[in-house]
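Hi everyone, sorry if this is the wrong subforum. Our group has a chain we'd like a structural model of before ordering constructs, and none of us has done structure prediction before. Sequence below.
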Amino acid sequence: MEYVDQAIDVRSGEELNTATVETFLRDTIPHLDGQMTVRQFPGGHSNLTYLISFKNKEMVLRRPPFGAKARSAHDMSREYRILKALKPVFPYCPEPLAYSEDPAVMRCPFYVMERIEGIILRKHLPKGMSLTPTQVERLFERAVETHHALHSLDYHQIGLENFGKPEGYIRRQIEGWSDRYRAARTPDAPDFESVMTWLSDHQPGDSPLPCVIHNDFKFDNIVLDSRNPLAIIGVLDWEMATIGDPLMDLGSSLGYWVEKNDPQEMQAMRTLPTHLEGALTRKQVTALYSRLSGRPVDNFEFYYGFGLFRLAVIAQQIYYRFYHGQTKDPRFESLIVVVGVLEKTARQVMGI
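Answer:
Right subforum, don't worry. Here is the predicted structure as tokens:
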């Protein structure tokens, strides 16, 4: 089907050492037949994702970006371990198959997982795919239900009690993302100081019910069944998962949520189909999540504002790599405009 996510030729400068990778995979994963081929998935702005194909098996390899600055944000070992723990209880996770940090194989840590083949939604519905407003509404509801299902897991029972520190989580997030923004700021970027001060001054207390949080739960990290696009069959990109506040996780998701009636400058930075007729609004997402979880969301401006700021930091960190010539990916050049729009929107939400 045309709308199943497709890999492309590997981008220049992001090639793998196919000989050493193939040797490692044949030594680690049994019964791989035929010649290995490597292609690259074009989506995403952070870790690099490749399609590894043999005659009898397709897998996905993930590695940090070349020239990565924020090493802690690209911890392959951590991502591999959380998939190992979650797969038995959260079936949407891809199965992790192999991990290596041997510099003789690749000059960085990487891991390989099963490929979950299906539809991944981005800015517009894929060519050949259409959904009625009622179907859109149901799909969006299922996304919120899946997010809540993750937050409902008992992380002690699956051995993740040492995976994060829920005490002081919100404070550390504000301080940490503020430090990361200041470190990645380029001369053409806004200073965000008023936003960072507002978040620090308005932060709520620790969540009474911390849980496993994804920290990047959005539609282009969700895989839909190609035979039934209303069915979610996978959740990808676990690089920032931890134990923390579920409402902060919800706020991070809302940072990407551009509604059909948002200003034109927000529409221009939209990367997901959250504008479709029938799509839930940010307030409707929050209300549904609150009903499902029983968690009151009394401070929507804080969580949404944090989501906007966090997204700006991610965009700025990626733009930093482009600005300093660490990557030539042309997608990254316009991210400085996105950072400016997010700063303006966050100040409007916060009333500053």
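For your construct planning: The CA atoms of residues 12 and 118 lie 26 Å apart. The chain has ten helices and nine strands.
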